Amino acid sequence: MINVLFVCLGNICRSPMAEALFRNLVKKERLTNKIAVDSAATSSWQVGFPPHEGTLDILKKHKIPSDGLIGRKLKKEDFRRFDYIIGMDESNLKNIYRITSKTNHPKIIRLLDLTKYRKDVPDPFFTGDFDETYRLVSAGCRALLYKIRSEHYL
């Protein structure tokens, strides 16, 4: 099983959106028996909470299931468990490195580095623009799935 973890600051906006989007892509491609998906936060502020209403609304708008999404904090052990740890922005990457004690490891990737955008995914908790976040996360998830399929011959 290939394990993918999406990470953002609070695990209520970007990373659960990416988890739901990616899980939906994996299901559509009939790869659920090969790829598992989760998400986590670098902070503990929203542990145990569901995603932000804006995230749930945008997922619903695009008919993407949001079942089972609940905030949790990234743990050092996650580094061993996951094959791909995907941060939403540069700050997330620094926090992932700190929490996992792994700096610049190839399994830790900024999501949009896999796309033509090569920038941070803005946090809609602060910008309020869930549509832009959805568009960027969607592009990143498609690129990540392409990468995984290529690397694992799926």
Automatic annotation (TrEMBL):
Active site per database record: C8 (nucleophile), R14, D123 (proton donor)
Question: Where is each Phosphotyrosine protein phosphatase I domain found?
Answer: 2-147
Q: Which Gene3D superfamilies does its entry note?
A: 3.40.50.2300
Any keyword Hydrolase?
yes
Give any Pfam family that matches. LMWPc
Q: Which UniProt keywords apply?
A: Hydrolase, Protein phosphatase
* EC number(s) stated in the UniProt entry for this protein: 3.1.3.48
Reaction(s) the record says it catalyses: O-phospho-L-tyrosyl-[protein] + H2O = L-tyrosyl-[protein] + phosphate
InterPro entries attached to this UniProt entry: LMW_PTPase, Ptyr_pPase, Ptyr_pPase_sf, Tyr_phospatase_low_mol_wt
Q: Write out the GO MF terms.
A: protein tyrosine phosphatase activity
Q: What class of enzyme is it?
A: hydrolase
Keyword Hydrolase in record: yes
Q: Which residues form a coiled coil?
A: none
Q: What family classification does the UniProt entry report for this protein?
A: Belongs to the low molecular weight phosphotyrosine protein phosphatase family.
Q: What is this protein called?
A: protein-tyrosine-phosphatase
